[in-house]
Amino acid sequence: MTSEQKTWENLKTEYLRQIEKALSSVKHPRKNDVLEDVRSHLDRRFAELKPDEQILENFQAIITDMGPASDYAELLEPDSIRMNQSAKWKYLLWVGLAAVIIISAVILLSMMTSHKVQILALEQGRIEDKIDYPFVNDPQVIGAWKSVDYVKKEKDFKPGKKSWKGELFLNHLIFEEGGDIAGGLFTWTKGLVLNERSKTASTYEIKEIDGETYLFFQWKSGDYTIRHKTPKYYVLKKVSLESVKSEPMLGRKADIPPTSTIDEKGRIVDKIDYPFVNDPEVLGTWQSVDFVKNVEDFKPDTQDFKGDLFLKELFILENGRTNWAFTWTKGLILNAGSKTASKYLIKDINGTKYMFFEWKSGDYTIRHTKPSYYVLKKVEGRLYVESRTVDKIDYPFVDDPEVIGTWRSVDFVDTMEQFSPDRKHWRADELFLKELIFEPGGKTANDWTTWTKGLVLDSNSKTASRYIIKEMDGSIYMFFEWKSGDYTIRGMKPKYYVLKKD
Amino acid sequence: MNLNNWQTQLRKGLLDIVILNLLRHDQCHGYDMVQTLKKIKGLKMREGNIYVILARLQTDGLVKNYSEASPDGPPRKYFKLTKLGQKILADMNAHWDQIIEGLQDIRKGTYK
């Protein structure tokens, strides 16, 4: 095989992998046929190139002609609900059976407790609870509660005798007036703690035992949502706010580097303006194999993390670039969006190179929890194909007096239908895009962004993002398509910022 | 109104009827269909799209495929209309003609 053929094979494999990934969530009986047909089409396009035409530019042109990987899912998806009758009935039967079993379990659980939790959906086997409950006050729960035990059933708890032998991951809960829980992960209403991200509603119950007040809190981790196990209970004891203020809500306290600062909202802001220093050892392709609390917890033969790994693959490219919204310099992976600098460490274990990548999510920046680590394995023979989606951006200016002014972000949602003025998915201070300023004549607050009626055009990222203005419950909202690298590089559907006019 | 969006939606909506009509007269190999469709001005067909649409049309029972030996490589997959496909296409074409006729009348101002 010539080097040109190898390059082509790598490009082809990468393109097919992207289609496979895009189709992974689509349930269509012929999706494998599509992959095979595309493979055969690509082979024929390559075979038609004369030897002197077998160059990278022509290979890339073939891939571009095929269209972005996201197209495949978009065109095939509408049909996923039109399965043949037999498959449809089998599917419905299994979903029905699973739903009956889980709903029965929940009914039993809710009979044991005084609160009813309603399961709304089973998304790809994942339980999603109903979480849109109106706020009902409960003065008794307001205040700080510190974990003292973790038990299988409420009746297993014996005051003064801790049955859980390991570390307690949930350190405390601070129930605030009005339905918030400090840390931004949970909210509450009488009898329930709600988690918007994991879509779980956990019951809480306050009990007097031996003259002390305890709170029994259902812990709905992946064991419940993914593996459908009965939730266990954290037992918390009412304490003063002062006694828990210095510890994070979850896990161990992060070692905040001396170069980091805490902003006015209490978020950790790492130093990220490091000069680029090369590290040949880190260059290449890394695939996630595990997610561990500590580096020493990793065992190459067993996967500690049982859920779906969010970061699947990381290409570390020359000059500090990656295939994600990260940059890097020797020893650090930098995220300008979340303002985090994550350490990486490379270890040779049994002849294989592993990278331990500190994962600094909101648990670190907001809740000050010690970061866990992605473990990524170095793989050879995978080539990064930088295929960016480029939108048409040369639109003539069409005025839109309604849009002129300053719009401030109030939420970030997957789809426009998901937005509800009463229930926010994100706190305003957690949102990356704070505001959009539309000036007369198509100008905005920066030089590289312009607008025309219905579109915001970014000449840097070459994206045209739609904006849609809607009236909801007497207020005017703007839905703004957010075209990040997830759209331009990873071919995902854009999500929406929701903004409100000043 | 965003003209570009409208054109994209229209193109997507037309792909099924265009592909079915292409198969109306003869069975076709996917690759050859792409070469023909690329010549239709305004359709802006991405080459990979055809296989997704063919997969859908097969699931709906409108198109079927069969393989035939090829002189210069592995067997090739050909696509043809099923009887149901022929019937549905006739209905689709009739419906399309009605729309075009109505639109032309509106454009000419002769719609009653």
Characterise the protein shown here.
The complex is a heterodimer of chains A (502) and B (112). The longest helix of chain A is centred in the first third of the chain and has 28 residues, at 85-112. In chain A, α1 runs antiparallel to α2 (31-47), α1 (3-23) runs parallel beside α3 (56-66) and α1 packs parallel to α4 (69-76). The termini of chain A are far apart. In chain A, β22 and β23 (463-472) form a beta hairpin. Chain A has 502 residues and is an alpha+beta fold. Chain A is 20% helix and 30% strand. With 112 residues, chain B is an alpha+beta fold. Helices cover 58% and strands 17% of the residues of chain B. Chain B has 4 helices and 3 strands, in the order αβααββα. Chain B has helices at residues 3-22, 30-37, 49-59, 83-108, and strands spanning 28-29, 63-70, 73-81. Chain B has a 3-stranded antiparallel beta sheet. Chain B is globular. The mean pLDDT of chain B is 87. The A-B interface holds A 19, 28-31, 33-34, 37-38, 40-41, 43-44, 47, 65-67, 71-72, 75-76, 79, 82-84, 392, 395, 454-455, 466 and B 1-2, 4-5, 12, 15, 30-31, 34, 46-49, 51-56, 58-60, 72-74, 76-77.
How would you sum up this structure in a few lines?
The complex is a heterodimer of chains A (502) and B (112). Chain A is α+β, with helices and mostly antiparallel strands and 502 residues long.
